[in-house]
Amino acid sequence: MRHALVLALILLVLLVAYTLVPAPISPELDATQVQTFVLEDAMKAFGDDASYAVLRTEKVNDRWEVDLKIGVRPHAKCPTLIKREYTFPPVYFREELWNDRCAVGSLILYEEEAIMATVQLSKVQTLPEDARGYATKYSAGEIALRQSCEECSAFEQFVKRLEAKPVWIVQWKNGETGFFVAIDESGAIVANS
Do 115 and 95 share a structural domain? Predict the structure, then answer.
């Protein structure tokens, strides 16, 4: 009986101690920390040569949801676009191949699609495989601003020929040589140098 009483007393002390000790608090992640984690995870799989863009970060109840666009070989003639949809905790993702056929849709949304759209030009098709394309989207206002240069760079000389409307401009580089291609938001060639 005495052993049972001692055992009950020990259990009671442990129970009281357990309720008085605060539970470890897991740190609450903010959106920036979540995005950093997702980018680091994707970089482990695709490396530094890929391009990455966070498309959406949202906290739903106690979980984070992050959509990430990954461009594999982003400056090649035909980059591959992948979307990863992350959810955590626990961490898992679903991967969706967006484009690996060098085909563009009816609206150019991403740099890689702008690069793909310029492949319809024969001067792009004949570039060697190690040539690289760099795309930037310009608003009508940005185009108009760049047209007022006095001592114009090759880029600004090219822009002077464009109408002041939104365009993607792709610069193709092959060693020391290069040229520009402007496309509209649907992928149609507007001008090339």
Answer: no
- CA–CA separation, 83 vs 117, rounded Å? 20
Give, as one character, the DSSP assignment of residue 4. H
Closest CA to 103 of 85, 80, 124, 86: 80
Query: Does residue 115 sit in the same domain as residue 183?
Result: yes
Tokens matching residue 40: 């680091």
Q: Is residue 2 part of a domain?
A: no
Containing structural domain, residue 40: 31-99
Please report whether residue 13 resides in a domain.
Answer: no
Give the global pTM: 0.78
Give the number of domains in the chain.
Answer: 2
Q: Give me the half-sphere count of Cα atoms (radius 13 Å) on the Cβ side of residue 39.
A: 15
137 vs 128: CA distance, rounded Å = 25
Q: Identify whether 128 is preceded by a cis peptide bond (ω within 30 of 0).
A: no
Residues 72-102 pLDDT 10s: 999 999 999 999 999 988 889 999 999 888 8
